[in-house]
Design a protein that fits this description.
Strand content: 25-35%
Structural class: alpha/beta
Largest sheet: 14 strands, parallel
Shape: elongated
Length: 583
């Protein structure tokens, strides 16, 4: 009996084991089914999330396209709603079921425009299953400073030739013509028209034809900069009087070594001084070439004296003898100066019958007062260190002549002409790749390289042309990004000598015109002729203009894409976001 009892118990255990195994197998099957079902749900959610995310990113690009295609859509402040709860469609226009999108755009970051125009596009997409994403695209308007050369109109009689070399990006809305004498383009070249006789040119990076037009900024966009100059105490009343290439107001950039460290590159060492000629003295201000004999000019003379050499104007010399007017101009020490230059008066003189230097109305740094006690009150700081309200804009309400050494970041704006009367150079050479200094010249009228007694050889006797700059400084140097709603030109480019000054190894009339920065103009103006008059072009690109353009420099209106960001959708409010991130 004991044996049968044991056998009975073994059968019960087997039944229990089978039941337990069945339950375990059922649990495994159920678990596998649940894992499979959850995996499917997760996969489908991931696919849905990817679709919603793609719709949001597509919304960013569609909004950017709308901003580029619709002038005036982008706001100066706040934000604009571009889409508001619209159904999302695919590339062929079919609606993607359950997806709804909102897109917004507006300024973000530093929105003053001093460092460029920056903003954000925000795209919000929701579906009918409570999936929501928020994506942001950082955008910026491309600055005209990105171009080494830009024109809206290329006149039929102006060509690239004579060995011209252009460094940096080129764009024209017109036809580019290449003369048989040849030209070389060392960066990309684009035109909304065609290149005529491209075989005459060398295109290091090729060229593109029939691209989209780019419109120059309207006048209203430039005159708005007057407010920035007013805030920065760098606005000056000017005059519209005088002939082509003449002005009564002159702005001279001055860099001063305040801390005696042997350079002029410190943050507080940039200044300007502003000279205004008396009525009728426009020719004196710009050292214009006289209509009659040069021997009567008061802008030129020589340094002679029995002890300390003093400057004597040519006009003050007698008509004949060893110290005649002609002898003065032929003297090795002969020089010409712009109106108001301290050399003309053997020291800084604030006021003369010919004109006056305009005083600076703010506090004067003690170091400057010690270095230049007479002149200190007439040096206007163009740095935040000594002029805390400085915005980087100098506005002259009239024609203005410019020259000097630029320390700092500045844009000069005129509703009329800007005349370049002598070299305009940065304190730090642009070739160094240091972006501490940069100059923008923005003119509603023209930008003119003056045919004056400094920029061009002087005809002393008949054909005896003489350069009145120091030896070895015959070329014209312009470190600036230039924008003219008129033309950029060399005054009297088709007159004067043809082989007086050398441009590298080529003899030419006035040597090289070395523009380092950029040249943007509505209508291309001439700077020389193939006969050898005027200047030869040597245009180089300042790479700093691409990343650090001059303050408030005009933009093309075209928004480029920068970086993408994800924003947490929980509690997101578009109005609060733009309020928080606008400065």
């Amino acid at each position: 009996m004991t044996k049968r009892f044991l056998i009975s118990n073994e059968r019960g255990i087997a039944l229990l084991t089978v039941l337990l195994l069945s339950i375990a197998l059922s649990a495994l099957v159920l678990g596998a089914a649940m894992v499979s079902m959850n995996g499917g749900l997760i996969r489908r959610y991931g696919e849905r999330l990817a679709t919603v995310d793609d719709a949001a990113i597509a919304g960013l690009e569609e909004a950017r396209s709308r901003l580029n295609g619709t002038s005036g859509l982008y706001p100066d402040t706040g934000y604009v709603t571009i889409e508001s709860g619209v159904p999302v469609t695919n590339a062929i226009g079919d609606t993607l079921g359950g997806l709804t999108r909102w897109t917004y755009a507006g300024p973000s970051g530093v929105s003053s425009g001093q460092y460029g125009v920056f903003g954000s596009v925000i795209s919000v997409v929701k579906d009918n299953q409570n999936v929501q994403v928020v994506r942001r695209l950082e955008i910026n308007q491309e600055s005209f400073a990105k171009y080494a050369y830009f024109t809206d109109i290329e006149p039929g009689n102006i060509w690239f030739g004579g060995g011209d070399q252009i460094f940096g990006p080129v764009h024209s809305n017109s036809q580019l013509k290449i003369h048989w004498t040849g030209a070389r383009f060392r960066d990309e070249v684009k035109t909304a028209s065609t290149v005529y006789l491209p075989g005459n040119g060398t295109f290091d990076k090729g060229f593109e034809e029939n691209v989209s037009r780019i419109e120059l900024p309207p006048i209203a966009a430039l005159t708005k900069l007057q407010a920035q100059a007013t805030t920065g105490n760098t606005i000056f009343n000017g005059f519209g009087s005088g002939g082509f290439g003449q002005a009564r107001t002159r702005v001279e950039f001055v860099a001063i070594d305040l801390n005696a460290d042997g350079d002029v590159t410190d943050d507080d060492e940039g200044f300007i001084r502003v000279y205004q000629g008396a009525a009728g003295e426009e020719d004196f201000v710009v050292a214009d070439r006289p209509g009659g004999s040069i021997t009567n000019t008061v802008n030129c003379g020589d340094f002679q004296g029995p002890h300390t050499p003093l400057f004597n104007t040519t006009a003050s010399h007698p008509g004949g003898g060893p110290h005649s007017k002609t002898a003065s101009l032929n003297n090795a020490s002969a020089r010409c100066f712009l109106g108001g230059d301290p050399n003309l008066t053997n020291g800084f003189v604030p006021n003369t019958a010919n004109g006056s230097w305009l005083p600076w109305g703010g506090p004067i740094d003690a170091r400057l007062l010690a270095l230049r006690p007479v002149e200190a009150g007439y040096l206007h700081p163009i740095t935040r260190a000594l002029n805390p309200n400085y915005k980087g804009v100098i506005y002259v309400n009239g024609k203005v002549a410019v020259s000097g050494v630029v320390r700092g970041r500045v844009t000069v704006v005129s509703p009329s002409d800007i005349i370049i009367v002598d070299n305009v150079r940065q304190a730090t050479d642009p070739s160094a790749g240091v972006c501490d200094d940069i100059l923008g010249l923005v003119s509603v009228g023209n930008v003119i390289v003056a045919d004056n007694l400094i920029n061009a050889p002087v005809n002393v006797q008949g054909s005896a042309y003489k350069t009145m700059r120091p030896v070895g400084n015959q070329d014209e140097f312009i470190h600036a990004i230039i924008l003219a709603l008129g033309i950029f030109t060399v005054q009297n480019y088709n007159t004067g000598p043809t082989n007086r000054e050398s441009c590298e190894t080529t003899l030419w009339g006035r040597g090289c015109l070395r523009v380092t920065g950029g040249l943007i103009q509505r209508t291309r103006g001439a700077v020389g002729t193939t006969a050898g008059t005027g200047n030869l072009k040597r245009y180089s690109y300042n790479q700093c203009a691409l990343s650090d353009p001059p303050p408030y420099f005009p933009t093309t209106g075209h928004f480029a894409r920068n970086r993408f960001y994800e924003i947490d959708p929980i509690g997101f409010n578009v109005g609060s976001w733009f309020t928080t991130y606008q400065q």
